[in-house]
Amino acid sequence: MQAVVVPDEERGKIKNRQYANRVRDFSGLRYGNITATDIDGLIEYKNTCYIFIETKYKDAELPFGQRLALERITDDLEKVKPVITIVATYSNEGDIDVAHALVCEYRFRGAWHKRENTTTRELIDKFLSWVEWR
């Protein structure tokens, strides 16, 4: 299978907006108390690290099951290469500018950390600097 080359000005943009806002119903994938969860973003950076991003509207908290799944995947992948999971908040209507969403917490090296007045982009840049420096 050949990779599709996307022009730089199109990278990261929503390609099929008519499908992007459709709600996914995971109710048919229930196993006891476990149902599927979603992750809003994933960056695999140059085969050196993983970055997971979850966005929440205003003060919404991660549901217990989603928090547990993100903790486990972050901690498991940490055994292979550096990984960070970021939970960011936004309050606007319409499209979410994830780069400028404010980080409320992040998971790194087996623990959750609170963060204030930092954008998702700023925290990712700091993490990538650390990954490249180490």
Key phrases:
134 residues; alpha+beta; five-stranded mixed sheet
Could you explain how this protein is built, in words?
The chain is an alpha+beta fold. The protein has helices spanning 17-20, 64-77, 120-133; strands at 41-45, 49-57, 83-90, 102-108, 111-114. It has a 5-stranded mixed sheet, with helices on both faces. β2, α2 and β3 form a beta-alpha-beta unit. The longest helix has 14 residues, at 64-77. The chain is globular and about 45 Å long. The mean pLDDT is 91.
Brief description of this entry?
With about 130 residues, the chain is α+β, with helices and mostly antiparallel strands. The protein has helices at about 15-20, 65-75, 120-134, and strands spanning about 40-45, 50-55, 85-90, 100-110, 110-115. The longest helix has 14 residues, at about 65-75.
Please write out the topology.
Layout: H1 17-20, E1 41-45, E2 49-57, H2 64-77, E3 83-90, E4 102-108, E5 111-114, H3 120-133
Parallel strand pairs: 2-3
Antiparallel strand pairs: 1-2, 3-4, 4-5
